[in-house]
Amino acid sequence: MDSLLDRLRAEIGSGNVLTDPDVTDSYARDMMPLVPAGRSLAVALPIDTAGVQAVVRACAENGVPVVPRGAGSGLTGAANAVDGCVVLSLTKLDRVLEIDPDDRIAVVQPGVVTKDLRDRVADRGLFYPPDPSSYDWCTIGGNLATNAGGLCCVKYGVTTDSVLGLEVVLADGSVLRTGRRTVKGVAGYDLTSLFVGSEGTLGVITEATLALRPRPAAPTTLVAAFASAQDAGLAVAEVVRSGVVPSLMEIMDAVSIEAAESYLRTDLGAGDGTKALLLCQSDAGPTAGDDIAAVERLCEKHGALFTHTTDDQAEGAMLLEARRVVLTALEARGALLVDDVCVPRTRIAELILGCEEISAEVGLTIAVVGHAGDGNMHPTIVFSGPREENRARQAFDSILALGLSLGGTVTGEHGIGRLKRDWLAREIGEVGLAVHRSVKQALDPHGLLNPGAVFH
Questions:
Q1: Contact, 143 vs 415, CB < 8 A?
Q2: What's the N-to-C CA distance of the chain in angstroms?
Q3: Apex 50 CA angle, 134 and 192, nearest 5
Q4: Interval 186-228: pLDDT, tens
Q5: How many CB atoms lie under 10 A from the CB of residue 352?
Q6: What is the dihedral of CA 70, 411, 241, 273, to 10 degrees?
Q7: DSSP string of 431-447?
Q8: How far from the centroid of its chain's Cα atoms is residue 77's Cα?
Q9: Residue 356 in contact with residue 327, Cβ under 8 Å?
Q10: Do residues 284 and 221 lie in contact, with contact meaning Cβ atoms separated by under 8 Å?
Q11: How far apart are CA 73 and CA 57, in angstroms?
């Protein structure tokens, strides 16, 4: 492949083509350690759309697979290298091209860090809603590729709900523009939604037109402690039925609380019989206090041990930080296998109870934390070394089966990647899988874009 490497160096610059194995190995996988990764031929770091086109076109002409990659914060192996591929890193396409406060849109490249975009538009009185837990280092491109969610989905939806249009480099190196800049538009198929969540298997996203919102009011925060995760789940179901729509509603079980407390060296109330915490926020401005008061009453109705409400932004941020650091805190306990099931919100309590039973069956710690407001839960299995890996995988599969049995889905925001390919087939069935293959064949007939991701 020397001729291909020479061509890539000529097209995008020799400094943007990495071949040292010690360096390329650092681009070989995402944050899920249990998904195998291959050895790439090279890592390409183009600086613009033309560079992405050049890489994709050169690889297509040489029959070399291309694996697009963002920051590597994913949890399903979606960006893992395959043997002999070129890993296409989009991190150098990192410009915010436009912020239009009048039409409330932003045009950005895929390498922009999510929190950086949030901060940039906030300076203009605007708000970009998607906020994955890794929002301070994950990138917009990765968010788009996996249709990432986050803590505010209960009110603002997932990434696709903020996407108006895309620029995509297709498998032959041509450029497709989808969508619009207008609020409404129904011309043709919804190709924008097709590419959002496609995990780099249909094209490489090089630009996105994103819808912004007015910057919301400073939130009011509620924390409620419960004697069991089941009581907390029942309180969530009651909030859903009540019609109150908080901007955030998160749940932490006892294992998650204790891990976060230890990591942050703070007290979240895990003692005194507390087995679960519910964190809620409302950014509804003048009615935020009423919304939070209503949620507080429902928590008390379902046996909350104590509740605490605050308008202090520093205190609210501290409580929310405890939720954001759970995975990092658990990493100190061992290797992690993070699940990502989404169930109807009225069945969260059943999922939590089921996870407790699975934990007892396999003899491993399972910490349950998640976005209670939309039913997207992240049961996290903690295990040590190869001897416990099989039990961890058994628990992982049991949780996915439980989620489907409750009318849910095997992924709410992390995507399928290479971790859940068999489970996608179980969820969508033979006809659904055949349609997926047809779309893939139409857009990537030689199967060179992220081969092995989403389905076999």
A1: no
A2: 26
A3: 55
A4: 999 999 999 999 999 999 999 999 999 999 999 999 999 999 9
A5: 25
A6: -90
A7: HHHHHHHHHHHHH-TT-
A8: 12
A9: no
A10: no
A11: 27
Amino acid at 389: E
The CB-side HSE value for 285 (13 A sphere, CA atoms) comes to: 4
pTM given for the model: 0.93
- Residues of the chain with pLDDT > 90, as a percent, come to 85
User: Using an 8 Å Cβ cutoff, are 369 and 151 in contact?
Assistant: no
Token pair, residue 220, equals 């009011």
Per-residue tokens: 209:
């037109």
DSSP, residue by residue, 248-315: EEEEEEHHHHHHHHHHHT---S-STT--EEEEEEE--GGGHHHHHHHHHHHHHHTT-SEEEEE--HHH
Q: Are strands 204-211 and 105-108 parallel, antiparallel or unpaired?
A: antiparallel
Among candidates 268, 258, 253, which has minimal Cα distance to 221? 268
Query: Which are the contacts of 438, defined by CB distance < 8 A and separation ≥ 6?
Result: none
Q: Secondary structure of 84-151 in the HEC alphabet? A: CCEEEECCCCCCEEEEECCCCEEEECCCCEHHHHHHHHHCCCEECCCCCCCCCCCEHHHHHHHCCCCC
Gap between the Cα atoms of 283 and 291, Å rounded? 9
Q: Could you give the CA distance from residue 400 to residue 381 in angstroms, rounded to a whole number?
A: 13
- Measured CA to CA, the distance from residue 165 to residue 27 in angstroms comes to 28
Q: Are 74 and 31 in contact (CB under 8 A)?
A: yes
Q: For 79-122, what is each residue's pLDDT tens digit?
A: 999 999 999 999 999 999 999 999 999 999 999 999 999 999 99
Residue 127 phi/psi, 5-degree rounding, is: -145, 130
Helix (H) or strand (E) holding 30: none
**β-strand pairing of 86-89 with 66-69:** parallel
Residue 177 zone, left/alpha/beta (φ > 0; ψ -120 to 50; rest) = beta
C-alpha–C-alpha distance, residues 378 and 371, integer Å: 8
